[in-house]
Amino acid sequence: MSMAPAAVQAGRRTAPRPPAMMIARRAVNRLTLPVLLLLPALIIIAGLVGYPLVRTVYLSFTDTGLGELIYGGSTWVGLENFREVFADEHLRASLVNTVVFGTACVVGTMVLGFAVALLLNQRLKGNLFFGVAVLLPWAVPALAASAIWKWLFDARYGFVNWALVNLGFEGFADYAWFAGRWSAFVAIFITVVWQSFPFVALALLAGLQTIPKEMLQAAAVDGAGAWQRFRLVTLPLLRPIVAVLVIFSTIWDFKIFDQIYVMAAGVPDRSADTAAVAAYREGFALSHYGLGSAVAVVLFLILLAFSLVYVKLIGREGELG
Amino acid sequence: MRWVLKRGWMYAAMALVALFALFPIYWIVITSLKPRSEIYTRTPDLWPSDPQWDQYPRVLGEGHVGRALMNSLIVASGTMVICLLVSAGAAYVLARYRVRITRILLILVLMTQMFPLVVLVIPLFVTMRKAGLLGTYWSLIITYLAFSVPLAIWVMRGFVMSIPEELEHAARIDGATRIGAMWRVVLPLAAPGLAVTAVLSFLEGWKEFLLALTFINSEERKTTPLVLQTFVGRGDTDWGAVMATSVLYTLPVAVVFVLARKHLMTARTAGAVKG
């Protein structure tokens, strides 16, 4: 549109003025294809993620129960639900569980993942076998993994108790792992780490393989020991990928649902529930949809903070182009 | 002796890790082959005295696991097909058009990967109920698109970006339209990327539990994770059946993972998304 006056000013009055209509049409033509291609995906994201998100935030300010959820007519209660989230013992505990248990899982996963990546990078004999062995737990769906470990940690017939007793820990005969909050967390922690260390290990291995051998050799020539080489050469070079993996593990372990829902179901007073499970239960089991939404919103805000850090981080790395 | 000191401990550590990774998988397989008397014993054997396969036909038949696997297959395939159709074009546009809005859209796509599903599930439940879709395959296929489409867009965009744009320019100079160039040049070259994306979106549907738990209200439509949860949730769990079901449920995924591990790793690290 702005081209027309420019042409006039240039004194080319005799030249046919490009009609505004045509320019507009050309722009529309150029944009039609990308817009058409983007539209279905955008509709899906807006409809299935955007709308429900806004709706949940709205619900978290209302006293919606089952009736109101289906027929409408809920009343606005302001921040009442959020006050309740932090006042209610069970819900507050679920938030604490999320942070403590989630952080423990992230640390466990990262430490084991890093150790395995370094081992795989040594190119030992049988590396292919180790690589596949380490990959397999990642392939096990969460529900199957929960079932497997629940069986391994079974009080009477479980392998873990049998092995512990045979190793001399007599106290573990018939030890009920899922009868207490902390012992249940130990079992679930092992399940989660078992499932998530493969990804971290293989991603870090890919990172390790990009480090030029010359740099490590040069450091060795300068007299750096194995630990110094790791701390002063390897770690700084891997920092970006480590940061991304930490953030991703955090998001993943904080929102974990399946394993907790299945494995923590029998823990007395539901004291091992995390925020995701508590939000779900508050809604669908107790019909407190407003309160459940408030728990979900709090969890969402925690994760949003991590997501923003992540987006900033990869934005800086220039991966978004 | 020096070798033992220098490398030996690494082999020992690696063996320990392999044991940790593989033992649970080994244990489900042999538990599924043990007769009842050897499962419910306080001195478990590391090897079944007399491996029996009858657990498998039993769960597939009366345990309704066969039907559940079929339900999972239908839902996961439906998700995969629609997801690919919807995301391929979007991934192409986000890879090729570099304008400010592209960046915003990409961040949006990425953020959707980080949402806890529990934030979305209540409104989705209401919508599905209003639409009369509760308890149907469609309720799952449609809602699974919420997280499989962003993942697919992100992974496929990486693949499209690795295809040189000059090839498309060349095709267009030779008279192809933009769509023609996409169809004849980009699509064939992006085939491996499409395959990886297909696998990933299939697995999203295969593994999903939370939404299935919420929407499915009849025995006939239960997907495999729901059946497993019912088994484990019971007071008197039939562990032989649970283990046989877990083996059947995991086997296809494990095969795909081992065969396609290089590609999966590239795709997953590109998106930095894990399942």
UniProtKB/TrEMBL annotation, chain B:
Membrane topology note: Multi-pass membrane protein
Record bears the keyword Transmembrane: yes
Chief location bin: membrane
Superkingdom of the source species: Bacteria
A Pfam entry, by short name: BPD_transp_1
Transmembrane segments: 9-30, 73-95, 104-125, 137-160, 181-203, 239-260
Keywords from the UniProt entry: Cell membrane, Membrane, Transmembrane, Transmembrane helix, Transport
SUPFAM superfamilies: MetI-like
Domain ABC transmembrane type-1: 69-260
Keyword Transmembrane: yes
Subcellular location: Cell membrane
CDD domains to which the protein is assigned, alphabetical: TM_PBP2 (cd06261)
Regions annotated as coiled coil: none
Homology family: Belongs to the binding-protein-dependent transport system permease family.
Protein name per the record: Carbohydrate ABC transporter permease
Organism for this UniProt entry: Solirubrobacter deserti
